[in-house]
């Protein structure tokens, strides 16, 4: 690495829609760009997805395609899956939280039963499978089901943009489960809603980064209700909104004169 690297500065990136197209693999251009950036500052990833999904997207392209998890982790200073509830420094696990232990079985089932009932009453142009995905640090809810292929994801995203189904679903969740229940609801990616205990949004990852004086965060879901909103607005970060991986490269290049 270059001797010019600033050890007090961190670039923290959302993954889906920021470093990659939604649910797609990282491009060779982005991979090379992040490698050059890491010569200048520390680089970290924070995603709402679980570690396997982040690995699928960031495992490399071209000659580096499908590299093992440990190799992918070592390409970055930190990788935070599930908003930082599963945290790695290079390839070393820092910590892991459990939403099941935090909420308890009774609250978990209350929430899941409500969602299944709500979704059963909605007719969509398409529904597939895996509507509720239980992760370490969150519950991921998907009206159309996570089993959709990319074309079907795009179709749902377009339909949702017009009819605001996820927004309405979040409003129903907030009405059913008031603040004292302890859950937060955020629209994420193209098709899903992330559900997690209060404070377990992407700002959770910041507790692993106390030594950094400047943290630039880049994300695409930065509006209120989006799963990048809290960290985008946080007092410890300088938030940057992007609309695509291409725009991420442009903004970071200007910021660090790459």
Explain what the structure shows.
Mg(2+) 1 binds at residues 14, 16, 220, 237. Its main location: cytoplasm. By secondary structure, this protein is an alpha/beta fold. It folds into 2 domains: 6-97 and 201-256, Rossmann fold; 99-197, Hypothetical Protein, Haloacid Dehalogenase-like Hydrolase, Chain: A, domain 2 (2-Layer Sandwich), CATH 3.30.1240.20. Helices cover 34% and strands 22% of the residues. It is built from 9 helices and 11 strands. The protein has helices spanning 28-37, 51-58, 69-74, 99-103, 105-120, 150-163, 165-176, 229-233, 245-256, and strands at 6-13, 41-46, 78-81, 86-89, 92-96, 132-134, 139-142, 183-188, 192-197, 214-219, 237-241. The strands form 2 sheets. A 7-stranded mixed beta sheet has the order 5-4-3-2-1-10-11. Helix 8 (229-233) links the parallel strand 10 (214-219) and strand 11 (237-241).
The side-by-side strand order for the widest beta sheet comes to: 5-4-3-2-1-10-11
Instruction: Write down the oligomeric state.
Output: single chain
Strand content: 15-25%
Note the total helix count.
9
**Count of strand segments:** 11
CATH uppermost class of the largest domain: Alpha Beta
Organism: Dinothrombium tinctorium
Pathway: Nucleotide-sugar biosynthesis; GDP-alpha-D-mannose biosynthesis; alpha-D-mannose 1-phosphate from D-fructose 6-phosphate: step 2/2
Protein name: Phosphomannomutase
Keywords: Cytoplasm, Isomerase, Magnesium, Metal-binding
């Amino acid at each position: 690495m270059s001797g010019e690297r600033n050890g007090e500065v961190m670039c923290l990136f959302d993954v889906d829609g920021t470093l990659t197209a939604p649910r797609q693999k990282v491009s060779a251009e982005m991979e090379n760009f992040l490698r050059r950036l890491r010569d200048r500052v520390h680089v970290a990833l924070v995603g709402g997805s679980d570690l396997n999904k982040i690995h699928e997207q960031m495992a490399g392209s071209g000659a580096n395609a499908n590299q093992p998890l440990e190799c992918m982790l070592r390409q970055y200073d930190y990788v935070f899956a599930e908003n930082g509830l599963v945290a790695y420094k290079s390839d070393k696990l820092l910590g892991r939280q459990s939403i099941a232990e935090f909420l308890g079985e009774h609250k978990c089932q209350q929430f899941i039963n409500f969602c299944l009932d709500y979704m059963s009453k909605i007719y969509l142009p398409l529904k597939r499978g895996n509507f509720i995905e239980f992760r370490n640090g969150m519950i991921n809810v998907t009206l159309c089901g996570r089993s959709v292929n990319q074309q079907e994801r795009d179709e749902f995203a377009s339909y949702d943009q017009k009819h605001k189904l996820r927004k309405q679903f979040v409003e129903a969740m907030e009405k059913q489960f008031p603040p004292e229940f302890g859950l937060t609801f955020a629209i994420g990616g193209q098709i899903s809603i992330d559900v997690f205990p209060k404070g377990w949004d992407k700002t959770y990852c910041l507790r692993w980064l106390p030594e950094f004086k400047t943290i630039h965060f880049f994300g695409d879901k930065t509006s209120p209700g989006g799963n990048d909103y809290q960290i985008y607005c946080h007092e410890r970060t300088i938030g940057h909104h992007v609309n695509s991986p291409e725009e991420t490269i442009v903004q970071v290049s200007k910021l660090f004169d790459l």
